[in-house]
Amino acid sequence: MPRLHDLELIGIDKSFATSKVLSDISISLKNGEILSILGPSGCGKTTLLNLILGLEQADAGKILYEDREVNCLPMEKRGFNIVFQDYALFPHLSVDKNIRYGLANKKGLTSEAELAELIDLLDLGPHLKKRIDQLSGGQKQRVALARTLVMKPKILLLDEPLSALDGMIKEGIKQRIIKIAKQMNLMTIIVTHDPEEALTMSDKVLILEKGRVAQFGTREEIVASPANSFVKNFILEQLESKKENIMKLFAGKKEFQLDY
Ligand SMILES: Nc1ncnc2c1ncn2[C@@H]1O[C@H](COP(=O)(O)OP(=O)(O)OP(=O)(O)O)[C@@H](O)[C@H]1O
């Protein structure tokens, strides 16, 4: 029988010293799905991402990937990979060398043909010889994505991938992330504090309030039936206040220009 879910978090708790940061977090997700972890500053989004990645250990609960418990596995054995908010690229190396960096110790993991396909998908061909400091923010983000994807992660984790970008650049990266997740059937988990980002990019949304699940569901479920007043206020009020900007952004624009 096919598996219902590929990633399952069951009853995850996490404290730092005496302060409980996450309580009883349970979610499930399939390969190829995009999840946004959404909530105000300090609600535990990054901590949850770090627990999935293996940078932090949960105090209680289970993390299962493809029916295997991964709690006890160190980060490198889980095979998940993250793009950090600041991209963490090597400024003195070319785009090409940055992309290939992780492959030095993993020869053959990604073939030259696969690499060429990825460079094409992310439109990085014209930039391969440039240094990182010669790139725009959106280009840097695309290099960071390529560098992570060549390692063939089972799950792609993204910490605020759009927060340093604006307008059209943001939209271009958003479309690329969706395309990558769907084309590669890659489970993608995105941390964001922006409801508009979460609702336009994801299949599922996890809304956290002070370390607890305020709601977990499809974006349609969240918009149509917010679970409580926190969700309603956090999501809908922010969306309402951004509506004018969103309308302005989309007005008169038929397609997105992607090479920023
Ligand atoms: N290593 C740590 N040691 C102690 N406390 C920590 C640690 N990491 C996070 N915290 C605390 O846990 C809480 C949740 O932090 P976390 O970074 O997960 O929130 P967040 O939702 O990602 O916030 P932001 O949107 O501001 O990045 C915060 O109160 C933070 O101070």
UniProtKB/TrEMBL annotation:
Cited Pfam families: ABC_tran
Domain ABC transporter: 7-235
Superkingdom of the source species: Bacteria
Protein name: ABC-type quaternary amine transporter
An MF annotation (GO) of this entry: ATP binding
Keyword Transport: yes
Keywords: ATP-binding, Nucleotide-binding, Transport
Stored PANTHER family: SPERMIDINE/PUTRESCINE IMPORT ATP-BINDING PROTEIN POTA, SPERMIDINE_PUTRESCINE IMPORT ATP-BINDING PROTEIN POTA
EC numbers, comma separated: 7.6.2.9
Enzyme class, first EC level, given as a word: translocase
InterPro entries assigned: AAA+_ATPase, ABC_SmlMolc_Importer, ABC_transporter-like_ATP-bd, ABC_transporter-like_CS, P-loop_NTPase
